[in-house]
UniProtKB/TrEMBL annotation:
Keywords: Molybdenum, Oxidoreductase. SMART domains: Ald_Xan_dh_C. This is Xanthine dehydrogenase family protein molybdopterin-binding subunit. It comes from Actinomadura logoneensis. Residues 11-116 form the Aldehyde oxidase/xanthine dehydrogenase a/b hammerhead domain.
Amino acid sequence: MSRLEARDKVTGAARYAYEYQVEDVAYAAAVLATIACGEVERVHADEVLAMPGVLAVLSCENAPSLRNDPDDGELNVFQSRRVSYRGQLVAAVVAETSETAQEAARLLRVSYRDARDPDLELRPPSETYDHEPYGEPVEIGDPDDAFANAPVLVDATYRTPAEHNNPMEPHTTLAHWDRDDHLTVYDSNQGPTKVRSTLASLLGLDERQVRVVSPHVGGGFGSKGTPRPNVVLAAMAARAVGRPVRLAVNRRQMFAITGYRTPTAQRVRLGADTDGRLTVLAHESNEQASTVRGFTEECVNPSKVMYRAPNRRLAGRLLTLDVPSPSWMRGPGETPGMFALECAMDELAKALGLDPIELRVRNEPENDPTSGDPFSSRNLVACLREGARRFGWAPDRKGLGVAAATYPASRGGSRATARRVADGRYTVRIAAIDIGTGARTALTRIAADALGVEPSAVTVEIGDSDLPAASLAGGSTGTASWGTAVVRACEKLTADPAADEASVDTAAEVGEQSGYSCHAFGAHFAEVDVDFDTGEVRVPRLLGVYAVGRVVDPVLARSQFVGGMTMGLGMALTEHTVLDADGGFLNIDLAQYHVPTCADVPSVEAVWLDEHDPHVNPMGTKGLGEIGTVGTAAAIVNAVHSATGVRFRELPLTPQTVL
Ligand code: MOS
């Protein structure tokens, strides 16, 4: 079965948020702060309002009041004079054309007062005096005693830089108010239900007054996981000019206002006996947040489920700085966290003279080592063994590296309806979203299975907040969450042959504790060539082997794995965003922020094991959107160590670093 919207996408018939045609549309362009800390003194709106075609200038000086969002200060657009980071949204121009809006935004003068030097430095974990602990720290056994007595010890600090999501489609919105105070937004996001509730609450509207339409989304990777300020601004601008307004956050602006992965400094300490059995695992992570939004990356989470170690210490700390606000990026927490842990495991294997696969096998836990719960299924060892066989793993061969992967299998409550239409056909409706993953296709297959019909007999409607409310496309939970609701709706319909329609809400079902620790696992293998003259690292081969429960659609699954691994390769070798001394990101375009292209990845292969897991959800799926990025960078860096004998603990491994 091919992707249902494949033809529409290839031929250009698939419509994205910015492309909707409405009458009398105007255009907004954002203006970003040029200082990092201080206050807006004045927005010199008059100067640009005199330009032909300029309709309005919005800023803290004239914006309507919002019901402030307490969790995400980024959404409180123009509600304060305060500037909290360089690149923060401070004004917008609305004009007749996109060109006029952009030109006026460029010319708009904003003066500032009380500017002060920003605090930008993510200090190392040893200087913890001003870092806020977050999350529930884990302290099991007596880690200090175990360190003191461990015959073999690894104690290393790993650093990952700021990294930015670069979906092909930037954050775009077309906002349109009707006469009766009803707002429609065509918007690029990862969850229309969430965008609707956020807009309604910020604007003081009833949810029935807001509709979010998003049938196609050109990628998000987490950057669209929660509504970003663009959707609020577009709604505000459309109301201000009494016309529909289009707004695109351009590529350079995305680097400032739509989130990034926090840089991390992670200290990992592993103690083992001489047989390679871990006696203690400590993982401490320092991350940064902005003063606007206290987002946490939670790098230590994967260390809760990896490896049997009787003593364990896991702690995350957050340093609030005058920087743009971090947010989700594919595999938040797990991706940087497993880079650190899996490099440390490689270091330990070398210190013990053990095959790194054997080290991992020896430390495979029986139950979840932190919660004590049994795993619903866990096939890490099988992934490592199968990968070793396929890859031609040889621990003594130079230039090969391996790392484990893990990602939680969870789900959110959603509603869905299933309806009998004419001639044995069915329609299934749910406000799910396809961010490029193929969700529409996967849900069609799931519905067809549940109804016992061919996929061609089922139409699945998604991508619209007027459909039954659904959870986000985030945390690799889409298929599990929406699939559960779709299956339950179809089961209910099938159970009652007289019914035309069945509706369900899975909130109660997904809220029940299963008593199992539910996680996907995998193994990544990398081969590298290191040029000792230029410092260039090339990756001729990458292999991922996964145990992710049932795979609904092999073509779509493979795309997710290969895309995730490619992102991991970018993390390892090229992706990093640099803050300048003034607090703005410096390399804010695709020429200077290098996302891997085909030439960078000659061979990326992804396979999976047959895994049956009756505990996770009615489909037996575990989610597979993010696990491909988890551990990939560690496998590459471990391969570079194997090739060079040099241990690199800071990403990315650019030629400059390697030389
Ligand atoms: Mo993904 S970072 O959970 O949207």
